[in-house]
Amino acid sequence: MFWSTSVLLLGLAHFAVSNPLVSKRWDDFEVKHAWAEVPRGWELHGPAPSDYTFDMRIGLKQDKFDELVTALYEVSDPAHERYGQHLSKEQVATLVAPHPDSVNLVEAWLLAHGLDTTSSSRSPAGDFITLRVSVAQAEKMLGTKYQTFRHGKSDDYVIRTMNYSLPSILHEHVAVVAPTTYFGTMKSMKATSFIQEGAPTIENDADFAHLLKDPGSLATPPSSCNTVITPSCLRTLYNTANYTPKATSQNKIGIAGYLEEFANHADLQTFFSRFRTDGAGQDFTTVRVNGGGDDQTDPGVEANLDIQYTEGLTVPTPNVYFSTGGSPPFNPDSNTPTNTNEPYLDWLNFILNQTSIPQTFTTSYGDDEQTVPLDYATTVCNLFAQLGARGSSILFSSGDDGVGAGDCLTNDGKRTKHFQPNFPASCPFVTTVGGTIRVNPEVAVSFSGGGFSNYFARPSFQNTAVSTFLTKLGTTNAGLFNTTGRAYPDVAAQGQGFQVVIGGRVASVGGTSASSPVCPYATFAGVIALLNDFRLSEGKAPLGFLNPLIYSTGATGFNDITSGDNPGCGTNGFTAGTGWDPVTGLGTPDFLKLQSLIG
Ligand SMILES: *[C@@H]1O[C@H](CO)[C@@H](O)[C@H](O)[C@H]1NC(C)=O
Ligand SMILES: *[C@@H]1O[C@H](CO)[C@@H](O)[C@H](O)[C@H]1NC(C)=O
Ligand SMILES: *[C@@H]1O[C@H](CO)[C@@H](O)[C@H](O)[C@H]1NC(C)=O
Questions:
Q1: Ligand 2 neighbour 142 (Cβ under 6 A)
Q2: Chain segment 315-370, per-residue pLDDT in tens
Q3: pLDDT class of 15 with cuts at 50, 70, 90
């Protein structure tokens, strides 16, 4: 008897180890993420209808992510023998695939909740599982309550939670579940670019555009560029005027667009006729992601601005406008199913599923880092690392509130004053672009976002640049920012007074009364796309993840901006000076210098 019992026990123990699923309890919850207060700008609207359905995304831990990061740095470091040997979609998928144990456990958990895992959709690497659930189901799975929240400014409604939990066994296998505690939506984050009524506009820039045809005749832009920016200003200022793209059959630039923001084809032609006559007849293509629209009767200010300036700098390079849906937006009074209605995961999963992707991407979403849960921010930042490993350069705006807007209180329940870094600007795997204004000399624009992440540690590529700055800074702003965090912006470009054609008319586009930056990221992306054209035309790989290059051999290819600051949070913020600074980074691009450095 003794003998048979111990065999039985041994057998059971073995069974439990090799089948951890059988004996698992799915109700010993541990908190995954919790907010102390409702994220700024949002308010509680009411309970979420329990029969309401939505697409839940489960991000699994990527088993070999460290190897992906190693590969990313090697292929992006001009001093490394692997430089330029970017990874294929399949190679990336191998490194970001979850461990089989993670897949098995998560599937067992889903089955235990009566969910049909065969009807879920998987990302190519299997690191994201998407499936439709009801609010009631999600609440049971995550030990939480969903509620309806309203964004005051944009009148957007979302279903989110103040906190969520996972069975303790899943914590080491699941990176993030969405939608849960990340509130940002495309609408709530939409940059506030407005037509500046009364600001100077010009109907065309023929008076100096013709000078650009004669190489060398226009060394510096005319003083009109102090207030009115056209492609000719930028092409002169950043030295791209004499470069003719040659690799247009391979090279592409991608612009990620907003919900309900459409780039207009007719306006682009008018723009060419006024400001880039040799572009006439060139056009962009629109790719609709996840139900994104393309209403040509409703030109978007931001969308037109982005496309007109990427085209204005890179024509005839193919420009692709990605119109990402997310619609229908959640309507608290109806029961239409919606997807997660958030700006990153749908778009990134779509792009990463393509075998061939544009070599340069630009977009202007952004939010206070502290309003993005750490698990969510890390997941999104890691997706940008995948794009970099595949050979794409990713450009983001550094934000438009200097070191922070308003009182800059932390949302951890302590409400202490702290500079407010911006995400994704703070992700080390993207290149972050600050803003400048005026020419001869160019200076920092006062709203240029800049600072130090509280989530991501300072990457080694910027160690020297940032520690040199911190030494000079001394005790200024001490305690208001995290000296060990990833510092940004990396670079800068013009940020205001852009002449844009909207609905057939030229308008000067700028920000609100406080002024928000226009598209330094689109301008910078245009210069990078031309550098990629040069590399491709020489039979070389595109630049890919830019940061290791620009902080090393590329650093002398920038015009150092040494004047201006970025006030906020009741302080003067940081001050631009010689070398890298958290206002304008390494400075604005000099195409000719960069071309010779990357050749
Ligand atoms: C990825 O692309 C393939 C081929 O276009 C498509 O069948 C599949 O549904 C896509 N997967 C996802 C997760 O989007
Ligand atoms: C989660 O949120 C609910 C509702 O807001 C709250 O009652 C509960 O205390 C929170 N739990 C944690 C762990 O923060
Ligand atoms: C400062 O940044 C580091 C990452 O470099 C992070 O681990 C730490 O929590 C941050 N400190 C605060 C107070 O946010």
A1: no
A2: 999 999 998 775 444 555 554 545 456 778 888 989 999 999 999 999 877 888 99
A3: very low
> Is 579 known to sit in a ligand binding site?
yes
User: How far is Cα 294 from Cα 289, in angstroms, rounded to an integer?
Assistant: 11
Question: How far apart, in whole angstroms, are the C-alpha atoms of residue 302 and residue 517?
Answer: 11
- Radius of gyration for the chain, computed over Cα atoms and rounded to the nearest angstrom: 25
- Predicted pLDDT of residue 489: 97
Residue of 29, 145, 162 to test ligand 2 pocket, by largest number of atoms within 8 Å of CB = 162
**How many independent structural domains does the chain possess?**
1
Ligand nearest to the CA of residue 459, numbered in listed order: 3
CB 171 within 8 A of CB 32: yes
Give the whole-angstrom CA distance, residue 283 versus residue 286. 10
Ligand 3 center–CA 403 separation, angstroms? 17
Which positions ≥6 away from 385 have C-beta within 8 Å? 68, 69, 72, 429, 545
Residue 313 forms part of a structural domain: yes
pLDDT in tens, 21-57: 555 789 899 999 999 999 988 999 999 999 888 889 9
Does the Cβ of 584 fall within 6 Å of ligand 3?
Answer: no
CB 376 within 8 A of CB 181: yes
Q: Residue 471 is part of a domain; what is its CATH number?
A: 3.40.50.200
- Rounded distance, CA 306 to CA 526, Å? 10
Residues 233-255 have a mean pLDDT of 95
421: Cβ contacts below 8 Å, ≥ 6 apart = 368, 369, 451, 452, 453, 454, 481, 485, 488
| CA 163–ligand 2 middle distance (angstroms) | 6
Residue 114 has pLDDT above 70, yes or no: yes
Helix (H) or strand (E) holding 187: helix 186-189
The reply to whether 560 sits in an annotated binding site is yes
With respect to residue 280, please indicate whether it lies within any of the assigned structural domains.
yes
Instruction: Residue 84: name the closest of 539, 594, 552, 414 by CA.
Output: 539
Instruction: Decide if 436 is inside a domain.
Output: yes
Q: Establish if 105 belongs to a structural domain.
A: no
Choose among 273, 338, 242: nearest CA to 501.
Answer: 273
**Whose alpha carbon is nearest atom 1 of ligand 1?**
353
What whole-number distance in Å separates Cα of residue 149 and Cα of residue 37?
A: 13
Q: Rounding to the nearest 10 degrees, give the CA dihedral for residues 60, 66, 68, 73.
A: 140
Residue 18's pLDDT is 47
CA neighbor of 527 nearest in space, from 117, 253, 205: 253
Q: Residue 460 sits in which domain range?
A: 194-332+343-598
pLDDT band at 6 (very low <50, low <70, confident <90, very high): very low
Percent over 90 (pLDDT), the chain: 68
Identify the residue whose C-alpha is closest to ligand 3 atom 12: 454
Enclosing H/E stretch for 527: helix 520-537
Would you please indicate which residues are annotated as catalytic (active-site) residues?
302, 306, 513
Q: Which two tokens stand for residue 457?
A: 């540690």
Which pLDDT does position 508 carry in this prediction?
Answer: 81
Cβ atoms of 300 and 333 within 8 Å: the answer is no
pLDDT value for 513: 34
Reply yes or no on whether the pLDDT at 429 is more than 80. yes
Kindly indicate the confidence band of residue 10, based on its pLDDT and cuts at 50, 70 and 90: very low
Q: In the predicted model, what is the mean pLDDT of the chain?
A: 88
- According to the model, what pLDDT value does residue 507 have? 85
